[in-house]
């Protein structure tokens, strides 16, 4: 004998009523095999049928009304998201596609492709956020400006040696962020520059810094003694990034006769001493740990500093680095006014740079420096998904991920004309394991993860950056921050990133200024706990908003803000 609860039975009944179209106003008959447990309160819904074979359940009027309402609203909620033209969202369920031409109303309900992705039945589902722009906004916006004024680096009053060095690297027109940042830095302001990944932030601080150092060097006012001290410090979170920034700086410094050195963690004090034995460099690119050691051992001297640059600022103001940052700042004197940056006893300009400033960074920043003295340059597309990069999300079982990855790499190589690929894992152990699996499949690759000894890590990334040496790099998030990967065509999130910030930085390894134009991102979604992040990304794509939790105002108190549209 079966028995069911009335609540279950009632909902089954209402569903039957909705779907069959046979609607019994007063009651329905249920075979005797479905005997009903009745509590006192439930008796008003049920009564025993006339014959012992059947039980009759009365449907209360309120429920009848609810069923009617659901029936009516269901049809209405089906918004037609598909219009003529290109698709913004494309999925294996065409009903959930969304066209570029469709704009969702503020109060309209979203229907997400990833809605049921916590369920096991969803394995194999996918959706793609198509690229709706051919070029990055930070280049396209600049093209508009170019039409009006044809702005080149010459127009920014940078010394001719630097412009020539840029020319020989085929960099002629500044990106939007460079157009906005360079003049402000040249005027002596402290600047906070928040612009999307790959928009050319490195040059936006290096060019005015080198220009000023060169001008100071030539100036008679510049005392011989201070010329022997470090004039600019660039602080970055990883050794790989330090090497990269130093390499760009060296290229630009060559014609100017300025010296760039780098100190990074993991190589011991001996290495730091060796760097400073050669004398104080004009520009020092350092990780916080290494610089703290250099200052403690009195190797480095920041007393004559003209520029203090903090790159990847949100990481640097993170609790894991902020103590070191504070102790470094104790050795510097930061200017509060452009006037303090010139002449004898000058103070240093503070430049804070980053692609993500999640909520709360402004508060942390204000503890370290006087935010009121800074000019904020914030790009329009900060914290938005890149409109020029195709981004696919695939719900896939853990055991199928290696094969899916192999397939994606094969496709890249055979059908898309090749290019480099970056594969992100969340843990060092996964990097190693995946490496062995790809070895077995005959895929040539390199690995980069934080637990590798410094000597092994050194050079892996730079060999990946050189075209033709290694096409696939399996790595953890240490390769997601700031590293320039212009030759990369495919980013694979083998493990779903843990936060929006991580997603932005990983995805930002493609679609960079001067890089491959048709970059793609592929994200594997396996665990139920990955799904929420994917849903918020899909929501942001459909509503065309920035990613949630990243809407920080960047600072308190209110700044003298320079809008991107300026
Ligand atoms: N004006 C320009 N024109 C063409 N290419 C440029 C220009 N400025 C910079 N680039 C190139 O763009 C690439 C990305 O620059 P950069 O690494 O400075 O970006 P970023 O904004 O610092 O990115 P991330 O946030 O990832 O650190 C580099 O290869 C650089 O050479």
UniProtKB/TrEMBL annotation:
Outline the extent of the Helicase C-terminal domain. Answer: 404-558
- Known InterPro entries for this protein? DEAD/DEAH_box_helicase_dom (IPR011545), Helicase_ATP-bd (IPR014001), Helicase_C-like (IPR001650), P-loop_NTPase (IPR027417), RNA_helicase_DEAD_Q_motif (IPR014014)
Residues annotated as domain Helicase ATP-binding: 182-375
* Signal peptide bounds: none
Keywords (A to Z) from UniProt:
ATP-binding, Helicase, Hydrolase, Nucleotide-binding, RNA-binding
Q: Name one Pfam family in it.
A: DEAD
Q: Give the EC number(s) under which this enzyme is classified.
A: 3.6.4.13
Its top-level enzyme class, in one word, is hydrolase
PANTHER family according to UniProt? RNA HELICASE (PTHR24031)
Q: Which family does it belong to?
A: Belongs to the DEAD box helicase family.
Q: What is said about the domains?
A: The Q motif is unique to and characteristic of the DEAD box family of RNA helicases and controls ATP binding and hydrolysis.
Q: What is this protein called?
A: ATP-dependent RNA helicase
Organism of this sequence: Zoarces viviparus (Viviparous eelpout)
